Amino acid sequence: MEDLTKIKGVTGCAAYSGNNLVAGTNYGSLGDRAAEIEQFWATAASVIAANLKLGPAKVMLIRGKARQVLMILGEKQNIVCELIPEADWKTVAAEVRKRL
Fold first, then answer.
1. Which of 20, 25, 73, 81 is deepest in the core (most CB within 10 A)?
2. Are strands 59-63 and 78-83 parallel, antiparallel or unpaired?
3. Is the pLDDT of residue 94 over 80?
4. Which of 90, 94, 56 is CA-nearest to residue 73?
5. Which residues make Cβ contacts (< 8 Å) with residue 68, sequence separation at least 6?
């Protein structure tokens, strides 16, 4: 995976397979507990999407006042990106998908 921090608005990124960081995919800075949380995010997104009959979950965004975390959900790995608060997450998600 290339360095996604080169995309405007992305401050950190990493790819996870299962509960493990994929070697060589960690760029910039993510929250120090991203690895612990990642294992639950994909499952939570899938359950919500299934309950609402949305089909497979592909993107998940968690936003607070000072941070945004974007997850691109894939079959073999999930990409987690930390974004600046002002970033347009839809634009970032489209750019990440192009690069994968």
1. 81
2. unpaired
3. yes
4. 56
5. 61, 62, 82, 83, 84, 85, 87, 89
pTM of the entire structure?
Answer: 0.85
Segment 26-83, tens digit of pLDDT: 999 887 777 666 667 878 888 888 899 988 888 989 898 888 999 998 888 889 999 9
- Backbone phi, then psi, for 81, in 5-degree steps? -125, 130
The fold adopted by the segment(s) 4-99 is Beta-Lactamase (3.30.450)
Instruction: Kindly state the DSSP code that residue 4 receives in the 8-state scheme.
Output: G
What is the DSSP code string of 43-60?
Answer: HHHHHHHHHTT--S--EE
Predicted pLDDT at 18 = 75
Distances (CA, A) of 83 to 48, 52, 55, 75, 94: 23, 27, 26, 23, 14
Asked whether the beta carbons of 83 and 12 are under 8 A apart, the reply is no
